[in-house]
Amino acid sequence: MATIRLGFRRQNFCLFKRSFLLLKLIAVVFAVLLFCEFLIYYLVIFRCNWPELKTPAYDGEQETLEPVLKAMFLADTHLLGEVRGHWLDKLRREWQMERAFQTALWLLQPEVVFILGDIFDEGKWSSSQAWADDVERFQKMFRHPHHVQLKVVAGNHDIGFHYQMSTYRIKRFEKVFNPERLFSWKGINFVMVNSVALEGDGCNICSEAEAELIEISHKLNCSREEHHSSQCGDGQPLPRSAPVLLQHFPLYRRSDANCTGEDAAPPEERGTPFKERYDVLSREASQKLLWWLQPRLVLSGHTHSACEVLHGAGISELSVPSFSWRNRNNPSFIMGSMTPTEYALSKCYLPFENTVLITYCGAAGFLVVLILVHFGFLDLPFLFGCQLLRKFKTV
């Protein structure tokens, strides 16, 4: 009877040990998943702060603070489609963008978010059903409260390059995203350009795009006049503020040779010459935009890397890096504090993809060691050290 009881106790002890091991494994897996898929986004984005403007606005002898608009700029999300999108790639990278965006909204509370093109990866050839599916995924990932405005410009992957672009694709895009080209808020003018249509070859779509920009230029010029001329009409004038130009293609530059920073293009690629109308806008289209709109700031995407360039009379252009791990290991977005007369920009980096992968690999290695130690295939370092000390004492 005693032998049976002893065997029963040993069996219960073995079951307890196995259950305890299973609990430890579950706890480690849960902790790692919680950290890599949720907490890391809060820890990284929590360090980002809205930039402060250098000087306040003055009205006569009294200081009057202008209302500051908090704007967030991101680019090149490239949501994968049904043709080139592997399910695991979709799951990993889209979850990353969703968590990053939702965390940024909660922690930073921007008032408006601008996405600078290439929202989708296969919009240039996707079927109606595939397009609807991609739009549904986008709206889930980039959901936002009603008080936050989301503005989008078209990229070449959304409607195709000039030779692929069609009225149908543009209308399909504009049906989902507001087609407005001019957006004003808190006295700040934003001009959102369909830069894909600035080919300059006189096609119908290109001609319409240029006509829209000329009309916007006319409205902006009227807003700068002290007294409105008869040509400006009686409509509501725009704020007297030089606009912020938002587009997908960068303005013309020879290459990224002068770009610096950890999120610039790789050194071996920076000297590669850019092709006009493919990598950047043509010289002619760039000059027209600067002349027509006279912006105080230009933000663009497309290159997936960061770069700051000065055009003409010191007009700054900032190329916004990709928001997706699919395009770079260290994605980021731009935070802008803006008034009608000033702006300040700062960059907020997202978690690095290799940091998450290294964490997972380290956790997997730890689990393997834990299992081997439990079944006696590997001694813990301190047990091995104790055994060595005992041998030395007996000698």
Automatic annotation (TrEMBL):
Keywords: ER-Golgi transport, GPI-anchor biosynthesis, Hydrolase, Manganese, Membrane, Metal-binding, Transmembrane, Transmembrane helix, Transport. It is a multi-pass membrane protein. Signal peptide: none annotated. One of its GO terms (biological process) is endoplasmic reticulum to Golgi vesicle-mediated transport. It is found in: Endoplasmic reticulum-Golgi intermediate compartment membrane. Pfam families: Metallophos (PF00149). One of its GO terms (molecular function) is metal ion binding. The keyword Transmembrane applies. The keyword Transmembrane applies. It comes from the Eukaryota. Gene3D superfamilies: 3.60.21.10. One of its GO terms (cellular component) is endomembrane system. Its main location: endoplasmic reticulum. The chain crosses the membrane at residues 21-44, 357-384. Metallophosphoesterase that catalyzes the removal of a side-chain ethanolamine-phosphate (EtNP) from the second mannose of the GPI-anchor protein intermediate. Participates in the glycan remodeling steps of GPI-anchor maturation to allow an efficient transport of GPI-anchor proteins from the endoplasmic reticulum to the Golgi. PANTHER family: METALLO PHOSPHOESTERASE RELATED (PTHR13315), METALLOPHOSPHOESTERASE 1 (PTHR13315:SF0). Interacts with GPI-anchor proteins (via the GPI portion). Interacts with TMED10. This is Metallophosphoesterase 1. It comes from Hipposideros armiger (Great Himalayan leaf-nosed bat). The gene is MPPE1.
